[in-house]
Amino acid sequence: SWHGMHMTLLVRVLPLCASLRTLSLSGNRLGQDALDTLAGAIGLGRALPQLRELDLSRNPLGQSRCLQRFAEALSKQPQHPAGLPHLNRLFLHDCGLGVITLFNFYRVLKPGALPMLVQLSVGGTTSGFEAEALEELSKVLVDGVMPRLEEVTRN
To answer: For residues 52 and 107, what is the distance between their CA atoms, to the nearest angstrom?
Structure first.
């Protein structure tokens, strides 16, 4: 299980990994502190400028506001419109995400936050995902937050 301390150590070396293209943190039981630390580094533009794939699947991200804070970090850089400008695959499946968590994630993202995202995996969500969460996702797509999104997987 990773906690804030572990992520703090990882975040310290991420700026040295300017060419890193894939980061898999799947199944590490990342909590609020760990994802906040990662989001902070991304929001400051210090980490992962070339990242193409981020796997946060199988972490308990649906239990708090950490996914919303992550979206805030992606949306906060005025001089760099996206904290992860080259990200094209984001895996959030089996994270216990409910409609409200996904709604807040989509709602917080600003236009240009994920300009290259092609694939979004949110499988393993709780019931009610289809109608409400897809409706909110469609608004995000219209607003230009994920202009290249081609695939949303739920299973």
So the answer is: 23
> What is the H or E stretch that residue 15 is in?
none
Place of tokens 């992550």: 70
CB neighbour list of residue 154: distance below 8 Å, 6 or more residues apart: 122, 123, 125, 129, 130
d(CA 89, CA 82): 14
Tokens of 64: 């708090």
d(CA 89, CA 60): 19
For 15-24, the pLDDT digits (tens) are 888 899 999 9
Give per-residue pLDDT as tens, 70-127: 888 888 755 555 578 899 999 998 888 877 788 888 888 888 788 899 999 987 655 5
Cα–Cα distance, 152 to 28 (Å, whole number): 23
Residue type at position 19: S
d(C-alpha 114, C-alpha 120), whole Å: 11
